Amino acid sequence: MAPFLIKRLLHGVAVLWVVATLTFALLRLLPGGPFDRDRRLPPEVMANIEAKYHLNEPFLAQYARYIRGIAAGDLGPSYKYIDRTVADVVRDTLPPSMFLGIFALALALAVSLPLGVAAAAWHDRWIDRACTTMATLGISLPNFILGAVLIWIFSLKLGWFQAARWGSPGSAVLPAITLGAMPCAQLTYLLRSSMLETLGEDFIRTARAKGVREALVLFKHALRNSLIPVLTLLGPLFAILVAGSFVIEYVFAIPGMGRFFITAVTDRDYPLVMGVTLVYTAILVCANLAVDMLYSVVDPRVRTR
Amino acid sequence: MLESPGTNHWFGTDELGRDLFTRILYGARVSLTVGIGTALVALIVGTLYGLLSGYAGGSVDNLLMRIVDIFYGLPDLLIFVLLSLFLGRNIVGVLIALGFISWVRFARVARGQVLQAKELVYVESARSIGASHARVLLRHILPNIFAQLLVTLTFSIPAAILAESTLSFIGLGINDPYSNWGTSWGTLAQDGWRAMRSYPHLIFFPATAIFLTILSFNFLGNGLRDILDPKTRRL
Amino acid sequence: MTFSFGKSLCRLILPLVFLLVVAACNRNSGSADGKTFRVNLGTEPPSLDWSLATDHVSFNVIANLMVGLAEFDKTLKPAPVIAKSWDVVDGGKRIIFHLREDATWSDGKKVVAGDFEFSWKRLLDPKTASEYSYTLFDIVNAEEYNHGKITDDKEVGVSALDDTTLEVRLKNPAPYFLSLMTFEVTFPQRRDAVEKYGSKWTEPDNIVTNGPFLLSSWKHENEIRLKANPNFFLGKPAIDNVEMMMVNEMTTALALYEQGQLDFLDNHSIPILEKPRLAKAQGFQHVPQLRGEYYGFAVNKKPFDDVRVRKAFAMAIDRNFLPSLLRGGEQAATSWIPPGMLAYNAKIGLPYNPPEARRLLREAGYPEGKGFPAVTLIYNTLDDKKTVAEAVQGMWKRNLGVLVRLENLEWKVYLKRLQNDPPAIFRAGWGADYPDPDNFIKLFASYSPQNYSRWKNSRYDQLLEQAAREMNEQKRVRLYNDAQKILCEVDVPIVPLFSTSESTLLNPHYTGLEYNSMGRLVLRNVKARSEK
Predict the structure, then answer these.
(1) H or E stretch including C17?
(2) Minimal Cα distance from B74: which residue of A?
(3) Mutating which of B84, B86, B175, B187 best tests the C interface, going by the most C Cβ atoms within 10 A?
(4) Looking at CA atoms only, how far is residue A284 from chain B in angstroms?
(5) Do A144 and B169 touch (CB under 8 A)?
(6) Could you tell me if C294 and C178 lie in one domain?
(7) Residue from C273, C380, C383 to probe the interface with B (highest B Cβ count within 10 Å)
(8) Looking at per-residue confidence, does A106 or B145 come out higher?
(9) The pTM is what?
């Protein structure tokens, strides 16, 4: 276990370094700088600002300074939000993104588990057809469209939910449904095929032959074994949920990191863009690591690999 | 100038009197080119990479797969945003940016398949009678893994269309409305979203176009998988 | 079902059902109560430190937390606030401000002249790296201190003679200097607060302010809450609380307004295409702004190095058509200084005249547009800029036979292009920093950094220098008329298109909101209608 863990951690560091380097290079190559404005600054005023943020140093020196900073856990200042550091911004905006991601994932699981099991249990019957069709529809529906539709119906027509106002009661419901729909569809699909595979195994037949009740067969024997592939999908799915939420954060005005990412890119707030990207990458790395470890616990075959 | 759907303009018109049906037809060119183009780029790059890696095996395979692992760890939508801004917000730029983040999937599939195919008897026999590496790869292994790649390809197209339209929706996607190519569906949907209360048709039709297109490719992918993948066929 | 799986499912679903019920019950909880006024800021204010803020969102918050020496009256003339009065002496080169004695900070201390001296010197300090430091460059040695040529701030020409007297010495007479006293960057600051908390001094627990409202909470990227300052020296505001939300999607913001969750929206929260519907609603209003839009020409490059071509393009634009397209209360313009400002003169400028435009173009060697080189017009990616560009492109095609290529660029890319290599035609705009023609006319001085067309005219430079020092208003207007004629009729490096308005939507339940033509949101006098 230990060498495996060390290997994975080293891999995670490598990923972070690649991301840091890539975003650093890409950002500096984009035309336009953080302090270009329609009120163009006198050169001396600009020089004061560049000196403050070390933007007057050579490219490589800036890069070295940044990497040293990250290694020491310092994500740097934000150029746009002058009074705050990137760490401040992340501390404020990560919790809403995480909360939304967890909520959406919980929602997706709550819906997909019964659907997936039902579809497999009544394989090739109308329930199965309905579930697979719904899953295909869900996979095909872009979340910005779903978000617009939900706001249209539940905020504007029915008035059940506020269109935004994060933190007020119920404000997370529409965004979580929007965000959770696609993972829900994917999970339903995966669980269904995994269940079908398990139901074909010998031990199920044995159980049935021994006269175990069908419900028990389904939920105890088959489901438990079918959850392994679902488990592997959860890690990446969670990361996608947290990172992929920026459209939803935009539409529903959620004070999360994704929204910051978009505005930071257009503002050329270099440290903020890199900071947010790195935090996302770290979440992704951790999620994958967690899944790997979980997997090796559940399925001993993996460990020998 | 803005008209609701009617007999003159089936899908209505936008604020400059342009026919929405026509704009959506032209937008199809953008979305489909991005979708299919990206998938093809990713297919070619990823498959070659995966073939090489899997066929070479050993330390080369190990190294190449480490690189793929790193690519897998990237937050792809974020990298896509930065790349497409850097490459220019036009079709070619978006195509390359999307290709950059989606080739790894093909590489993994191809490698996995090669590893299986390498063990097959007829591949071994081809090697033993002195066929060159290139010949073995292209004539014996590639056809054998083709089915799986085709399924992956079919699922990559809607993924690319989705990514492109999402980006266009938040105003960071293809932004070149005066090329003869037409306006991305995502941009049309964004325009419509901005007018949702007064003119719902402006968002309804582009959104439906995106949804139906992605749905069609997903159905196609499911069908292909059922036909080509013997494991699921059994079920 | 007795499986543990079923139980965990219940655990997931029950809270959801609960949330749904709560949400359904709560839908009317946020309606207008006459005590809390809710506005949409659109985005997180980048900084509430008025020495460092640069954008209208930050200034709109600061303007409700703070007051300065002066504020604009209804005619945009500086009227005293913390200053009781001022004396302009030595031919305009020295200004003495006399401060009121009853102005207090939120912690009870008196506002003294030294707070201004500290704030201004902090603004100018190169270590502060303030973008708006140049606002005060008219002061003796201010520029030198900011550029590091002088290190002792005592040499800068601003000093508190005693607690109620502030003396300012200027390099040259500057008629607009008093207007700058209304600009938030010149507002006083408390040295003890700034030095104690460093960059965190603007957080609710640390900040010290002197205005009508107090900062009570700041949830970043979500909302800012203000509460009325009971000790405000001009009287406590009528509303008790202000909620400032940060909803950047305009459709979402509008949905909130229509659900009764917001009381005020500005232009940034009202989609263009929804305006015709909203125009019928009570509370919808256009507020004219001191802001002009223009198209500029690269005068050093072919074909726009020929003044006849520039004139032809100017005369081929039917400006009167544009407001009907944009529906935002825009006012077509042929001259540069906007309406509402001194020296505004609608008679100056080239009128719409297609035959004359065609004649000029023929004279320049391009009959009916034949042989005209390929030229590009750039603009930044925004709906209304796109609409205007497409419309003008059509007019040029129709009237001149020239098809101009359009290119829209992301904001920062667009700025870089303007600065480094402006294309043949470009869109640009300017909003007043202070409501004086100097601010608009200086834009096209040969040394101005925003003179993207690279046009140079020494007579124009001379006129604006003269006008900037002229203390007699009528003489000033004449000088500006002459300058505008050179700009808009003789040399034509730019074509003014229109001055803009801000569309606003105010809950009819409220009255007294001031949204001035500098784009500032003033909530001090807002009150519920029933209280009238």
Answers:
(1) helix C4-25
(2) A281
(3) B175
(4) 7
(5) yes
(6) no
(7) C273
(8) A106
(9) 0.84
Which chains lie within 8 Å of chain C at 3 or more CB pairs, if any?
A: A, B
Cβ–Cβ < 8 Å for A187, A112 = yes
Mean pLDDT over each residue of chain C, to the nearest integer: 89
| CATH number for C159 | 3.90.76.10
Q: Is residue C106 domain-shared with residue C174, that is, in the same domain? A: yes
- What is the nearest CA distance from B163 to chain C, expressed in angstroms? 19
What is the overall mean pLDDT for chain A? 84
Tokens of B81: 């945003």
Residue C398: per-residue pLDDT: 92
Between B and C, how many CB-CB pairs are < 8 A?
42
Compute how many other C-beta atoms are within 10 angstroms of the C-beta atom of residue B92. 13
Contact C483, C475 (CB under 8 A): no
**Which residues, at least 6 apart from C63, have a Cβ–Cβ distance to it below 8 Å?**
C184, C211, C520, C521, C522
Q: What are phi and psi of C510, to 5 degrees?
A: -115, 160
| A165–C contact, CB cutoff 8 A | yes
- Domain endpoint, select from C191, C226, C255: C191
Chain A hits for B170, CB-CB cut-off 8 Å, are 144, 246-247, 250, 262
Closest chain B residue to A18 measured between Cα atoms?
B70
> From the CA of C427, how many Å to the nearest CA of chain A?
12
Chain B residue closest to A151 (CA)? Answer: B196
Q: Predicted ipTM?
A: 0.83
Q: Is residue C108 part of a domain?
A: yes
Q: Model confidence over A193-210: pLDDT tens digits?
A: 888 888 887 887 888 788
Average pLDDT over residues A22-36: 88
Token pair of B97 as six digits: 């940016």
Residue C42 sits in the same domain as residue C116? no
Q: Is residue C217 part of a domain?
A: yes
Residues C149 and C238 in one domain: no
Structure tokens that stand for C390 in this block? 């497409």
Q: Where are the domains of chain B?
A: 20-232
Q: Check whether residue C31 and residue C143 sit in a common domain.
A: no
Q: Are C253 and C31 in contact (CB under 8 A)?
A: no
Q: Is the pLDDT of residue A161 over 90?
A: no
How many independent structural domains does chain C possess? Answer: 3
Question: With contacts defined as CB-CB under 8 Å, which chain B residues touch A23?
Answer: 79, 82
Are A155 and C410 inside 8 Å of each other by CB? no
To the question of domain A93-269 being in CATH 1.10.3720.10, the answer is yes
Cβ proximity of C235 and C103 under 8 Å: no
Residue C276 resides in a domain: no
- Set of chain C residues whose Cβ sits within 8 Å of the Cβ of A51: 126, 129
The minimum CA-CA distance between A198 and chain C, rounded to whole Å, is 18
DSSP letter, residue C139: B
- Residue C29 sits in a domain whose CATH number is 3.40.190.10
pLDDT band, residue C50 (cuts 50/70/90): very high
Provide the token pair at B26.
Answer: 């032209």
Mean pLDDT of A90-108: 89
Report yes or no on C278 lying in a domain: no
Q: Which residues of A touch C259 (CB under 8 A)?
A: 155-156, 159, 162-163
Residues C334 and C451 in one domain: yes
* Residues in chain C closer than 8 A to B15 (CB atoms): 272-273, 387
Q: How far apart are CA C485 and CA C257, in angstroms?
A: 45
Q: Does B202 reach chain C within 8 Å, measured CB to CB?
A: yes
Domain boundaries, chain A: 93-269
In 3-state terms, what secondary structure has residue C378? strand
Listed by number, the residues of chain C in 393-412 with a beta carbon closer than 8 Å to a beta carbon of chain A are 410-412
CATH of the domain at C296: 3.10.105.10
The amino acid that residue C370 corresponds to is K
Looking at residue C264, its amino acid is F
Range of the domain at C14: 7-48+211-263+507-528
Domain B20-232 has CATH 1.10.3720.10: yes
